[in-house]
UniProtKB/TrEMBL annotation:
CDD domains noted in UniProt: AdoMet_MTases (cd02440)
Domain of life, source organism: Bacteria
Native organism taxonomy: Bacteria, Pseudomonadati, Pseudomonadota, Gammaproteobacteria, Alteromonadales
Keywords annotated in UniProt: Membrane, Methyltransferase, S-adenosyl-L-methionine, Transferase, Transmembrane, Transmembrane helix
InterPro entries on file: FAM173A/B, SAM-dependent_MTases_sf
An individual GO BP term: methylation
One GO MF term: protein-lysine N-methyltransferase activity
SUPFAM superfamilies in UniProt: S-adenosyl-L-methionine-dependent methyltransferases (SSF53335)
Name of the protein: Methyltransferase small domain-containing protein
Transmembrane segments: 6-26
PANTHER family referenced in this protein's UniProt entry, alphabetically: FI06469P, METHYLTRANSFERASE DOMAIN-CONTAINING PROTEIN
Record bears the keyword Zinc-finger: no
């Protein structure tokens, strides 16, 4: 293959990668957080905390900012009896996550490319999130404005500004990362 042919093949790939990077950069600027996945330790701890607390009856679990699906996919696999929903604004991670959902045939998982702050979360009985302080503040404002009662909310890394969590679990990692567990959250 000569140089002209190589350029012909690699140029579309290069442009695609560039568009993906730009799209991720723009959504990061908009939301204030990149689609960085939860660590394996955080994921395992969140799944365990949920497993210990979830009732047998069908629940609606929502990942507020589902990124590439590192948490929402294990949630849907581990809890097939529950409905799992992911909200994500960033196009490419959402699309990649959707592909995995169909490959794994996770019928209990719904993935919306939508802002969870502008969505109806009234049916959510369990919420999980890995956000930044400004988004936690916005989430708290939304919970209050919509007068939502959330039976269970788990937040990886940052707390809600004015609610007190019943439990804080510290991960066995370099930062002693906290996972905040809010039970029967009423606004
Ligand atoms: C740090 S990632 C966490 C991904 C996943 N939950 C996990 O734990 O692996 C946070 C994600 O939240 C998304 N996000 C932030 N604010 C959002 C909003 N208002 N609506 C939808 N997605 C949002 C970001 O685009 C990002 O992908």
């Amino acid at each position: 293959m000569n140089t002209a042919h190589a350029a012909w093949y690699t140029l579309p790939l290069f442009i695609l990668c560039l568009l993906v990077l730009i799209s991720i950069l723009l959504s990061t600027l908009k939301t204030g957080i990149s689609p960085m996945p939860s660590s394996g330790k955080a994921r395992r701890e969140i799944l365990q905390q949920l497993f210990d607390r979830l009732p047998d009856s069908k629940q609606t679990m929502v990942d507020l900012g589902s990124g590439w699906g590192h948490l929402v996919i294990p949630l849907a696999r581990r809890f097939p009896q529950h409905e799992v929903i992911g909200y994500e604004l960033s196009w490419f991670p959402w699309l990649a996550n959707l592909t995995v959902k169909y490959l794994l045939r996770l019928d209990n998982l719904t993935l919306y490319r939508r802002d969870f702050l502008r969505s109806d979360l009234a049916t959510a009985s369990v919420m999980v999130c890995y956000l930044v302080p400004q988004s936690m503040h916005a989430l708290e404002q939304k919970l209050k404005a919509d007068e939502l009662e959330v039976p269970l909310l788990l937040s990886h890394y940052f707390a809600l500004p004015s609610f007190k969590s019943q439990t804080v679990v510290y991960l066995d990692d370099w930062y002693r990362t906290p996972v905040y567990v809010y039970e029967r959250l009423t606004t």
